[in-house]
Amino acid sequence: MENVREKIKNYIMSISLQERKKRELARYKKEIKYLEKMENDEIDLEYFDLKSQYEHKRNILSIFMLTIIVSILMSVWKYFYNFVEMFMKFVTLDHGNDIETAKLMFIISVIITVFITALIMRILISYVEKMHQIYKKLLVVGEIRSRRYK
Fold this sequence. Notes:
The protein has helices at about 1-15, 15-35, 40-75, 75-95, 100-150. The protein is mainly alpha-helical. The longest helix is centred in the C-terminal third of the chain and has 51 residues, at about 100-150.
């Protein structure tokens, strides 16, 4: 019983803010030690590489967001619903069950819309998280560079 309590306590502590900060500090110290062992040229290369990765990801994110905004402004969804409407007309000509077909097509279109929206949001969130990690590492390398060149 005591073992189970200890496991639960450890699990709860592992997701607490305090424990996350401790783990983050340990990773930071480990990375600082690793970077301080590098030569100046290696640090410069690491800095420039991270800077170019970050700028590239920022540019891609800007293009992606611009594409989403343009597609919203151009009413891309209108074409999707026109396709659904044409499909409904085609199906109802053969079967004649308009109400059931309309319900089914509405459900399918809502599912597709929600799926596409969720997929785009997940891609954006993942991309922004990667950018955040690169930026944090860039700041650490920049700090090491500034310490060396003082």
